[in-house]
Write a structure and sequence with these properties.
Shape: globular
Strand content: under 5%
Structural class: mainly alpha
Radius of gyration: 19 Å
Distance between the termini: 40 Å
Number of strands: 0
């Protein structure tokens, strides 16, 4: 009985995490109507950093330049660069499109990990799955509706997915003896520094008045508190209970949940090509995660 309850909790935590991350694309899209992409990132991750500091207030003292360089790298790739690409993608294309491309992150990760990690090798299923996913993304890219502007956003979204895959691979090389919240918090810290530098060099004004709007501060709180803080904790705990393979399977829900939210909240439109493309991406993800049959 207790085992079943624990497994149910694990599945619930992972599902809630995926739901939060799927809805986050739409939350980001709403904020971009009022503030700039870099402002969205800055407010979101400054808040997330403070929340993680409150949750795990233990400050890890400086150990080595190598460790700090690693935290800077994952902060640059997984937070600053990824969300910069994602936010600009959302500025030019639908949240639904971005959600579809994010579904291919595990496939990008498998390809990158093959070249970077000794224990992560390609197999026939991964190659077939990746080929199907690429075909699906191409189909969505070539959808003619609002082609020029949307194409720019779609390409940025694919670049964001590839960047996050690189980040996910490098994350496996994390230094030992650090709590995962400390690693996340440190990456957020360096990312916020980079965001501040980006903002000041761009010389664009802050839209502080927009922060008084319920839609703006509500979505910032949602993104900072839930999508960037609690969701990480939920997912980590869920993976500990049900394992990484079962947890990864929930990624199949990201495109569907994002599309549903985008249709309801933003009145986004779904085309036949998008549906077929999304199915190909998910089919590719499914095939890639199946264990190859022994020869």
């Amino acid at each position: 009985m207790f085992k079943n309850s624990s497994l149910a909790l694990g599945h619930l935590l992972v599902f809630v995490t995926i739901l939060i991350w799927s809805v986050a694309f739409v939350g980001n899209k709403i904020l971009l109507f009022y503030i700039t992409p870099i402002e969205v990132m800055l407010y979101r991750f400054a808040l997330a950093y403070v929340i993680l500091l409150l949750i795990h207030p233990k400050i890890k003292t400086f150990k080595s330049i190598k460790d700090e360089a690693y935290f800077f790298l994952i902060g640059f790739l997984g937070v600053f660069l990824y969300f910069l690409l994602e936010n600009f993608a959302l500025k030019y294309t639908q949240a639904t499109n971005v959600g579809l491309y994010m579904g291919a992150i595990p496939l990008f990760t498998a390809i990158i990990a093959h070249f970077m990690l000794k224990d992560e090798k390609l197999n026939a299923n991964i190659i077939i799955g990746f080929t199907l996913a690429i075909a699906g993304m191409a189909l969505i890219l070539l959808d003619g509706k609002g082609f020029n502007l949307r194409l720019k956003g779609d390409i940025l979204a694919i670049a964001a997915a590839a960047t996050f895959a690189l980040y996910s691979t490098i994350l496996k090389l994390a230094p030992k003896n650090y709590h995962f919240i400390v690693i996340t918090r440190k990456s957020f810290f360096y990312a916020v520094i980079l965001m501040l530098l980006y903002h000041f060099t761009s010389q664009k004004p802050l839209h502080l008045q927009a922060l008084l709007l319920p839609k703006v501060y509500g979505n910032i709180i949602f993104l900072g508190l839930f999508a960037s803080s609690l969701a990480f904790l939920f997912y980590k705990k869920g993976v500990e209970i049900i394992g990484s393979i079962k947890s990864t399977n929930y990624i199949y829900l990201v495109p569907l949940l994002t599309a549903i939210t985008g249709i309801i909240v933003l009145n986004e439109k779904i085309t036949v090509k998008m549906i077929i493309g999304g199915v190909l991406i998910l089919l590719g993800l499914y095939i890639s995660q199946r264990r190859p049959k022994p020869l």
